[in-house]
Fold this protein.
Amino acid sequence: MSRDISTLLEALPYIREFHGKTIVIKYGGAAMIDEQLREDFARDVVLLKYVGMNPIIVHGGGKEITEHMDKLGLEVNFVEGLRVTDAETVDVAKMVLIGKVNKDIVGRINRYGQPAVGISGDDGALFRVSKTTPGGNDVGFVGKVDHVNVGLIDHIAEDYIPVIASVGSDRNGQSYNINADEAAGAVAHALGAYKTIFLTDVEGWLKDPADHGSLITGADTAEVDAALDSVDGGMRPKLAACVRAIRGGGNSAHIIDGRKPHSLLLELFTDAGIGTKIVPEA
């Protein structure tokens, strides 16, 4: 049997299992920068819609925000994986995420045959946001999502693929930059998404970030909770978002290497999968 046919047969039970299910995809990292990976991602998402799944995309754009900040001479700092954000940085984030990155993703998906609609946390009061202070640190106008307008997403997702930019406002209209992992976890939790997938620039959750052979292929939410305080950098908000997504009723959450072509399909539709899979506590 040819490899192409065996791959299709391997995918069949997963397509059946996931039919009609909501899949939240946090899109970020190299998959958003490399031209071929961007095209692959758009086609893969369209395929998910065609086979009966309900993909919801939540995206960041950290590298592009940093590039624009550098051009403007703005200082770039991170605390516990979160960008320190003053008023100027909020404006840059909104400009880049809503005006550029979001529309590029929408345009690519549209070209592959499924209509997509781009929104941000401000549209239709999608997100209600409040200020976050990770570890007691003031990181400026960085928000956490307290409430998600599920009805808006459901309404759009009936006919379109929602593409959500990770910015929003509080009750007083103050704009906040939102870590895209945090936003994806909040959306998945609110929707009770069957799966949540985080595309990143490493193989997954590593026991030792310096050792690429230390991949943790699977863990449950209790194990993640116990380890969170010892996790540094950008992996920490990803793991926290995995736990939040699952505790909304999700079946699993996945952290995968978005640098690999078609990593989304490999994780969903093959027996081996890739990356780290987080499941509910036993």
Remarks:
- Residues 228 and 278 are 13 Å apart (CA to CA).
